[in-house]
Amino acid sequence: MLSTKEHVTKEEKVVIDYMNKIYEKIKERDPHEKEFLQATKILFDSLIPVFVKNRTYIENNVLERLIEPERVISFRVPWVDDHGNVQVNRGYRVQFNSAIGPYKGGIRFHPSVNLSVMKFLALTQIFKNSLTGQAIGGGKGGADFDPKGKSDNEIMHFCQSFMTELYKHIGPDTDVPAGDIGVSRREVGYMFGQYKRLQGAFHAGVLTGKGLNYGGSLGRTEATGYGTIYFVDEMLKDQRMNFRNMTIITSGSGNVAIYAMEKAIKLGAKVVACSDSNGYVYDKNGLSLQTIKRIKFSEGARISEYIKSHPEAEYFDDCSKIWSVPCDIALPCATQNEIDEESANMLVKNGVKVVAEGANMPCTIEAIDIFLDNGVLFGPAQAVNAGGVACSSLEMAQNSARLSWTFEQVDEELQKIMKNIYRNCTRAANKYEHPGNLVIGANIAGFTKVADTMIEQGVI
Ligand SMILES: NC(=O)C1=CN([C@@H]2O[C@H](COP(=O)(O)OP(=O)(O)OC[C@H]3O[C@@H](n4cnc5c(N)ncnc54)[C@H](O)[C@@H]3O)[C@@H](O)[C@H]2O)C=CC1
Ligand SMILES: O=C(O)CCC(=O)C(=O)O
Questions:
Q1: Residues with CB under 6 A from ligand 2
Q2: Are the beta carbons of 219 and 259 closer than 8 angstroms?
């Protein structure tokens, strides 16, 4: 059931009834897909104002079509570990929507991967990709494989086996995967190598996030984290604020978190806490990014190592408690549903000014409501972290043109894209009479382009 205000107009009731019918149908069909249902609910709730004003979306039953993936691929991934044991994982690719371009979205290797997680990520990717202004549809893939503790040889064999099935379904004009949790340049390299071997041809544009020697783009590694900060900068500027002397906490210490920290520090902020899935480190005077990079990028170790070289910092072995650290800006950059009602209340009590989702759906529905009800500036994932996929699209453009841009060119383009996304979200929120509500703004701005295109292309 969708959430409703106490008083709804006649027009709103028609829309809510229409949406509820679809929501109940998908819930009945896949009741166990809790992340997918959560993302659907957030989406439907925020689209009510645009459906009230545009009857054509109901007449064309766009929502019921859009909420069903165009294609779901699920496959066996067998591989042999270093001890000679045969292991089996389950792989996925959800090709959700190709109205405005080839499917585009990352690949996640994590034990929590299941169809519900894949579907929620692919669904939200549709609107994120639409917001970038580029011609990319929405998809996502992954496997319930845990890279933690695996040797390089095991990672390579897993990636090769994964691609041995996936290669049949992807291509530079059909579906272009990239990295996500547990998948970075190394894994993309192994997957690219296997794709090339199976195809017998070098298609640079089939994957993004590649190494620089074979078609990767400068700036892609930094893009999601930097883009997050460029977006927050726009949020702050609108309120006549900036990053100088702001206290920041970020969850995670992976690709997104590290480059968000880097750019925020460059703009004058102080990052006092960050985490990994075991725990978090805190230093009221600011953490050393150099040490975090060494621990995570060079040593592949746990964040608890931090206090060995920085005894002035503290380590706490419960990562979910990071939200009890007082801050001006909270950047959840790890995983889904990491900020619940209790954590949101704690952040509000401690005076948080901005919460921006570097990760995908890191805040529960209840947490988002708490932020919005308490006047916290809230940036939703599909807008805030869109810089990564936007830069992937720039990588595709460079591959097509057989060119390589400089870091400065890519970064300048990224800044323009993030400013544009912020402007389009605020414009949509204002147009549909929810000023300041970027959840509504982002979903409406992302949705309308896809929905209008689906109508133009007929019932397919
Ligand atoms: N890499 C990219 O370009 C993009 C990533 N994202 C999203 O950003 C988030 C992070 O992705 P990456 O940084 O690429 O992954 P990553 O694998 O580089 O890093 C993930 C980090 O989160 C930590 N982590 C995992 N579960 C945790 C938990 N429950 N509490 C605290 N920390 C936890 C891990 O220890 C690791 O430090 C994901 O939600 C991903 O979907 C979104 C857009 C693009
Ligand atoms: O760069 C890409 O294509 C993937 C980015 C991604 O997975 C995401 O935006 O969540």
A1: 104-106, 125, 128, 178, 180, 208, 360, 385, 388-389, 392
A2: no
